[in-house]
Amino acid sequence: MPFTRMDQSTAAEWMNIGREVARRQAQMPTLIKSMLRQLEEQVDGFETNQLVHALQTATRAVRDQASEELIVAALCHDIGKVISVVNHPAIGAEILKPYVSREIYEIVRTHQDFQGRHYYALMEMNPNAREQYCHEPWYALAEKFTDEWDQASFDPEYETLPLTYFEPMIDRVFGKNLLANFDAEAQASA
Known about the structure:
- By secondary structure, the protein is mainly α.
- It has a single domain (about 10-190), classed as Hypothetical protein af1432 (Orthogonal Bundle), CATH 1.10.3210.10.
- It starts with 10 loop residues before the first helix and ends with a helix.
- The longest helix is centred in the middle third of the chain and has 18 residues, at about 100-120.
- α5 (about 90-95) runs antiparallel to α6 (about 100-120).
- The protein is about 60% helix and about 0% strand.
């Protein structure tokens, strides 16, 4: 019988939990695609819905020959809006964190402050909020991400790649076996 308290658990029970989590984890690409499709329902006063915005941002990354990881991050940078617009950068970054480099995680986590250069003054906020990150090694890439791709991607006339173009990338990035070490250790101890 499975444990009802963690302090009474066994190694065998945790191995079983690890296997079950790995099975569920394998569905992550499907979940991400579903969340992206939900962005299609969100327009929030922009000229495009949030899925088109995400696709345009990722399309610009593709055309700028960004890495696959960065392209997927560009596609998913606003995925947190499915849950909350206010703190969507943190939500999106945390979803991406196990799958991308620390640099890309930080770019997604801070992209709102970088975008602020383009509109924070209109809301009586600090348009130079990005400057707090100026000494970070990823600062220049965050500027490129925001200034060249993200803030420019609300154009209904822009020739945008479809979600199907990005699906194999989503499968590869979010299909990483995060529990590979756990599985290897479990097999070695069995």
